[in-house]
Amino acid sequence: ARHDLGEAIKRDGGEAIWDYIEKSQAMGSPAKPVGAVAASPLNCNPSGDCKDFCYAYNARGRWPNIIMKSELLEWAVNNDPKRFAAQVAKDFVYGKGKVLFDNNRALRFFDRGEGSEAWAKVIYHVNRAETPKGTGIRVHVFSKRPAFLNMVAKENIRLLSVDQDNPEIAEGNDLPIAFVFTGKGPIKDRRT
After folding, report:
1. Tell me, what's the pLDDT at 135?
2. How far apart are CA 2 and CA 8, in angstroms?
3. pTM here?
4. Which of 7, 19, 128, 150 has CA 20 to 30 A from 175's CA?
5. Are 60 and 31 in contact (CB under 8 A)?
6. Distance CA 1, CA 7 (A)
7. Which residues of the chain have a pLDDT value below 50?
8. CA 181 to CA 35: how far, in whole Å?
9. Cα angle at 114 between 109 and 119, to 5 degrees?
10. Which phi and psi (to 5°) does residue 143 adopt?
């Protein structure tokens, strides 16, 4: 399948990637959440704990097809955020995310990878997508980048991912915090 996709890209360029994303859907079936949209690790600036314990890049996360898909999604986001957002909305409302949409759940972004300015544009358009319920789609985002989270509208679930190795990122902002416990060593600074 990867060989066929490579040949299609050589022949049709970026449209082959868009066709792949439409057929495979932008949402994946990650190991931890029920359904989510993956990103590339290109935007990650992992803490020591994140680097050591990241579930998304260990075990099944190392499979070539999973890595390839997240890189192709990243390409799409950076080439046409609005078009990619339309595909995400379609997949959430009618495809892999239908059960989540029908039960008024937020769409999870970044079961792997991290957000960027281009991803903030995607989320903006997803929030404003036309749906059968007449509402946009609310998203759920974990990030270690406060500046990125502040680009995401407050109506979404925005959580700053803090662990023992990066408590300083919680200082000076009012973002809600998701503290990651790894089970190693004492907590360095209880102010977080």
Report:
1. 85
2. 10
3. 0.86
4. 128
5. yes
6. 10
7. 188, 190-192
8. 23
9. 65
10. -155, 150
CA distance from start to end of the chain: 46
Three-state secondary structure call for residue 107 = strand
Pseudo-torsion of CA 72, 107, 55, 116, nearest 10°?
Answer: 50
Burial class of residue 11 in the structure, from the number of CB atoms within 10 Å of its CB (0-12 exposed, 13-18 middle, 19+ buried): exposed
How far apart are alpha carbons 85 and 73 in whole angstroms?
11
Cα three-residue angle 169-172-173, rounded to 5 degrees:
80
CB 37 within 8 A of CB 56: no
pLDDT for 112 equals 77
How deeply is 105 buried, as exposed, middle or buried, from its count of CB atoms within 10 A (0-12, 13-18, 19+)? middle
105, 35 in Cβ contact below 8 A?
A: no
Exposure string of 122-146, with b = 16+ CB inside 10 Å and e = fewer, is bbbbbbebeeeeeebbbbbbbbbbb
What integer pLDDT is reported at residue 34 of this predicted model? 64
Q: Of the candidates 119, 115, 129, 128, which has an alpha carbon nearest to the alpha carbon of residue 160?
A: 115
